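User: I'm putting together a teaching handout on how sequence relates to shape, and I'd like one worked example. Could you take Integrin beta from Cyprinus carpio, show the sequence you're using, and then write out its predicted structure as C-alpha cells right after it?

Assistant: Happy to. First the sequence, then the C-alpha cells directly below it.
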Amino acid sequence: QEGQLIFHVGPGSCCVCVLRSDSNICISAKAKTCGECIQIGPQCAWCKDPVSYFVYKGFKPSRCDDRDSLEKAWCSPHGIENPRGTVTIDKNKPVTNRKIDGGQNLITQIQPQKLTLNLRSGESQKFTLKFKRAEDYPIDLYFLMDLSDSMQTNLENVKNLGTELARAMQNTTKDLRIGFGSFLEKPFIPVMPTYVKNPCFPNNCTAPFSYINVLNLTDDSALFIQEVSKQKTSRNLNSSEAGFQAIMQAAVCTEVIGWRNVTRLLVFSTDAGFHLPGDGKLGGIVRPNVGKCHLENNMYTMSNYFDYPTISQLVDTLSDNNIQTIFAVTQQFRDLYQELSALIPKSAVGTLSTNPSSVIQLIIDAYNSLSSEVILENSRLPEGVSISYISHCKNGVSKKGENGRKCSNISIGDEVMFDIEITAKGCPSKGKSETIKIKPLGFTEEVEIILNFICECECHKDGFPNSPVCSGGNGTLECGVCRCNEGWLGRLCECSQDEVLTEDLDANCRMDNKMDICSNNGECVCGTCECKKRDNPEERYSGKFCECDNFNCDRSNNKLCGGHGRCECRKCICDANYAGSACDCPLDTSTCLASNKQICNGRGICECGVCKCTDSKFQGPTCEICPTCPGVCTKNKDCVQCRAFGTGDKKDTCEKECSYFNLITKKKKEELPEPNDQPYINHCKERDANDRWFFFTYATKSDSTIEVHVAEELGKWKMK
C-alpha cells in the first residue's frame, strides 16, 4: 500500500515499515510525475522502474521519496532519478593590470567573466568571484557645471582644470579624458523679451538654457581650456536649478558625450539646490521625464515638454550606465547633497572653495574614496531565484548579508573575493534559461551568468507514447508512470474526463485531505474507493474512504468486544446491559446486592457488576465487612447458639432466620481457626441461656459465603 515499504530481513521472513507521511515532504507533496518530485527539494528522488518491479505482494511504496527509502523499497540503482545541479565556468580570463595590444584596453578586474549554472529546486550552487583593482585604469571625467551668475568664481577655477588635472592624476592613470557641460534652469517663466535674450540686462550674459553639452570627452586638455574659457554665466529667477535634467541627459546620451567602457566619473558642481518632479507645473509641464536622450546640436530640446526626473530615475540611470557621481557643492548646500548621495550608490560629496587647486584635490579625493570601495550588484532575478553574498576583504575580514556585497579600503593591486550562492525554488521561468549579470558598481566589467533550471528528469525524454500499460494506449508511459492523453485521467489513464468531476481523482479518495488513498484499504477507481477483500469472508472494510472495518475493535478475554457486542467501523456497539470500549462492563447490579438488599450495603457504588466501597471502614464483595465495627459477635450469637446447641431466643425460628451461614463444629476452642487462617475472621465469646461461655468464629470468604466455626465445649459458669 502507498506509504508502506516491504523488504526482506532474513530467509523466509519479511518486515513492513510504515512511512510517516506527515514528516516526509517527498511523500506528502503527492508528486505524480518525476518532474514534480525533483522540484520538491534536493532530498527527493524518483523511482522509474516498471510497476511489476516496484510492487511487492500488493504493497506500493511512493515513487517519490529519499534515495535510501527507494533502495529499501527495491527500486533498482539504475531506476532512481536524482539529477544534481552544476556550475560550469565558460570564460575565465585572469585578473590583470593594463596591457597595450594594438591600442586596445585589455584590463581585466573581475574573474571569472561567464558561468553556466544548472539549478535544481532547493539545491544551492556556489562559486567565487575575484576582484583586483587594476593599475592605470582609464578614466572618463565629465564636468557638469551650474552657470548661474553666483558660480563665476568657480567657473574661472575650472578653466585651467584640464592640464592640471591630468598632471595631478598621473599616479592614478595616464589615460584620462575630460568633457564639459553646463546647466541653468527651464526657460519657462514668463518674462520680458529683453530678459529672455539677456537676463543680466543692462549687463551682458548668456541667454537662459536648461542643459548644453559644451565639449565631448577628449584627451586634448588645450581644447578643454579653450572651450571652457568661452563660457559665460547667466541668471535665473529662483535658487533651485535644473541639475537633475542635466545629469539625466549626460548619462543617457552615451554616444554624444563619448563615454567609453571604462571608469566613468561625473563631477556635478553647483551652489544651489535642485528641482524635483512636480515643479514643472509652474510652467504647465506635467509629462513625466522618460529618461531618454533629447540632445540636438548638443542642447537639450525637451525642457519645456518633460518634467524633472525623479531621484529613483537618477539612481537607476547612473547605475545602469556605470557612472560614479561627485557632487562638488558649496558649504551651504553640503548637507542637502550629502542626503542625496546617501541614496545614490557610488557617489561622493566635496566642498567647493575659492582656491583654484581645491577643485582638483576634491576630484582626486572623491575618486580615491569611490574606487577604494567595491560593491557588487546583480541584475533583476527571475521569480523564484535568490542570491546571497559573502565577502572576503582585506585583513581577513568576512561579511554576510547586504554587507557581503562590498569591500572597502581597497588599494591599487589589492585582491578581494566574493562567495556567491544562487538558489532556485520550483521551476522558475517555466524551465526556460535566464541570464543575469553581476557587476561592481561604477565599473563597466560584469559577470554573465546563464541559469538553466532542472525541471524534468532524464527519463522524461524516453517516454513511450500510447503505451498498452496506460489502459490500452490512453497515455504515455514516462518514468514508470502514465502521463495521460487529453481527455483521460487516472493512474493508468483509465477514466474518461467526461465521466468525472475533477482532474485530481485521488483527492476524492482521500479523507479530510490526508495522504492515504482510500485509507490504504482499497483502490481509487475514477475517483471512487473500492475496498479490498479480506481472506476471512467474515471480515470486511467499508465506508466511503474504506476507513471502517469490523475486526479492529477492542478485545476482552480474547474475544472481540468481549463477546457482548459487535464491531462497527472499529468501535464496539455493546449488547444491552453491557458497556465499555470492549463491552466488558456489565450494567446488571444484582451481583452488588448486600444481605440487606441494598446495593453495596449502602456503603459503595456498583461498577461493571463489582462493588467499590466508598466508606473506608467497610470491605468485602458487597461492602458488608467491617473488621473494626463492634457488634458482629453479638449480632450473630443467637443464630449460632440455636444452630449449634438448639438453645437461645431463636431456637423456634432457627431454620428460617439462621441459614445464612455454614456451620462447622470443633471439639475445643483451641481448634477454632486462627486469625491468619482466612481473611476477615472475627473471634467471638458469648454467654448462652445458662450463663455459660461459648466460643465461635465468624468469617466471610472470597466467594461471599459466611463460615462459622463453633467449639462444642462450653466454658465455665459465670461466678455470682
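A couple of points you could highlight for students: The first strand starts at residue 4 and ends at 10. Residues 356-371 form the longest helix (16 residues).
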